[in-house]
Specification:
By secondary structure, this protein is mainly alpha-helical. The protein has one domain. The radius of gyration is 24 Å and the shape is globular. 46% of the residues are buried.
Length: 509
């Protein structure tokens, strides 16, 4: 079989037709669940839409679907908007419409005009316990909330203002995921139609960091390493988890020898994170550090396997011990991801490793809040765009979403005990943990058996990997370092060229 270099150097060889490479993948052709679901929406998409001849481009369609689902999620919160947030503690749980946003408007001093990180709060929480950029988001929403009327009215408006801005974040996520993989834009429907996304979008402010992370992933896919780093640093200034993406990116760049691009990404992340945090760090160090001290001092909380262990003990788990054990498990998981990256028969795709490392962080954490699923949904759509697996996972998350509110209703309803008892709650916790582990398992299988990866079946390497797409390996270990019996090739429609994805001459060990 001729190499890619020999083929391209042959003057008699006809040029490759780029059109088949740019043709969009139709989920209804390769995914049986998508094909069945399309029948409820008017049937499979036509060729005119695929060729972009219509105004209804994938980005516009998916953004509108996302906005529609987001609006349904807002409607689901209306029982609380009409009074359950204010007139009783259990009704907001029995209606499954709880949100942190209205409660923290007064509880974190926004109703009193206090400045986050600089002004002390009354009560147990002395400073705002959120990262700086999320604090800025909350403060801007407070500026847009009129200070007149009853506190109930102000909290309602504050939630509505935040929901409006978060809706913009949701649209940004939809568009970014749609454009990250040029040939598979319709995979972003997984994000737009995810039921857990609509249900949890307005519980907290996580969508802001998710939108910045999705934009960063798009920049990396376009080969803009520094812009990726800038956006990732901003996302980390809003929520801690995005910085974890630098770990798998480091190992991937190590395997491919792309140190310059990783350096630009890391530099951009450091610059933007410092630009946001350094002023507050210097002017209000005690308030700035509250997020980090609170994360360390916080005990075992809802949704984690640590809570199941704690509820089966006579005495609560010591927080310091849990911190040490959780950190150890996370480090071991990261080492496992690194080993998988360097030993896999073919270099994993960036989105696959990004999902694994974020999932590892959530699974080992002291708390697994229902809105944390938002961190994973865009990564899952890029890493494993398979409707069956995605819906299995989403079913587990919806079950947990309902279970946690019913459990809180049970604990706050007094002698009535209306809701889900402790044993039932532990079952739904186990279900959503197992659902996340299931997606992790199929992604690991795709990495170890690249022929099972639905993205690579068409011969692509890492279309969302930017400079890593098609790059040769320079450092591999174990199985990847051994001569391979079968070579993975990417062919054009005429079969005029082939690219060898096996071990390069520079590989060692």
């Amino acid at each position: 079989m001729p190499s890619a270099e020999t083929t391209s150097a042959n003057p008699q060889q006809p040029e490759r037709d780029p059109e088949p490479e740019q043709e969009q993948v139709r989920p209804t052709r390769e995914d049986e669940v998508a094909a069945v679901g399309a029948e409820f929406l008017g049937g499979p998409i036509g060729r005119r839409a695929l060729l972009g001849a219509s105004w209804w481009t994938p980005a516009r369609v998916i953004a509108l679907v996302m906005l529609g689902m987001f609006a349904l999620g807002m409607i689901q919160k209306f029982p609380c908007y009409d009074g359950a947030w204010f007139y009783g503690t259990s009704s907001q749980y029995t209606h499954a419409c709880y949100s942190d946003i209205p409660h923290l408007y007064q509880g974190r001093g926004f109703a009193d005009g206090l400045v986050p990180y600089f002004d002390k709060l009354s009560g147990d929480m002395d400073y705002l316990e959120y990262p700086v950029l999320t604090g800025v988001f909350m403060e801007v929403a407070a500026w847009l909330t009129p200070g007149s009327g009853s506190i109930q009215h102000q909290e309602q408006v504050y939630w509505m203002v935040n929901a409006g801005i978060l809706m913009i974040c949701a649209a940004v996520i939809a568009v970014c995921v749609t454009r990250t993989h040029r040939r598979r834009p319709w995979d972003a429907l997984l994000v737009a139609l995810a039921p857990a996304f609509a249900l949890t979008a307005t519980i907290n402010w996580d969508l802001f960091a998710v939108a910045l992370t999705a934009a960063a992933m798009l920049m990396w896919a376009r080969g803009r390493a520094f812009a990726f780093g800038i956006l990732l640093g901003l996302a980390t200034a809003a929520k801690l988890y995005p910085v974890l993406l630098l770990g798998p990116l480091f190992v991937l760049c190590w395997r491919a020898g792309r140190w310059r691009e990783f350096g630009r990404a890391a530099l951009g992340a450091a610059v933007s994170w410092l630009a946001v945090n350094l002023p507050v760090m210097m002017l209000a160090p005690e308030g700035w550090s509250k997020f980090y001290t609170f994360s360390q001092e916080r005990g075992v909380d809802f949704g984690s396997f640590w809570l199941i262990i704690s509820q089966h003990r006579d005495t609560p788990l010591d927080t310091n011990v849990v911190n040490t054990l959780a950190t150890t498990l996370m480090v071991l998981a990261c080492l496992g991801v690194a080993a998988l990256t360097l030993t896999a028969p073919r270099r994993p795709r960036f989105s696959q490793l990004a999902f694994l490392v974020v999932a590892a962080f959530i699974l080992t954490n002291k708390v697994y809040s229902p809105q944390y699923v938002l961190w994973l949904i865009p990564l899952a759509a890029l890493a494993r765009p398979k409707w069956r697996d995605f819906l299995i996972w989403q079913a587990c998350e919806v079950a947990y979403f309902l279970g946690i509110w019913l459990y809180l209703a049970y604990t706050t309803s007094g002698d009535k005990h209306q809701g889900l008892p402790e044993d039932g709650y532990q079952l739904v916790v186990a279900a959503h943990l197992l659902g996340t582990l299931y997606i992790c398992a199929v992604i690991v299988r795709d990495i170890w058996l690249p022929e099972r990866d639905v993205v690579r079946r068409s011969g692509e390497d890492d279309p969302t990997g930017g400079v890593l797409d098609g790059a040769k390996d320079v450092f591999v270990l174990g199985q990847a370092a051994r001569p391979r019996r079968h070579r993975h090739a990417a062919r054009s429609a005429e079969g005029s060229a082939a690219v060898d994805w096996g071990r390069s001459p520079g590989s060692s060990l």
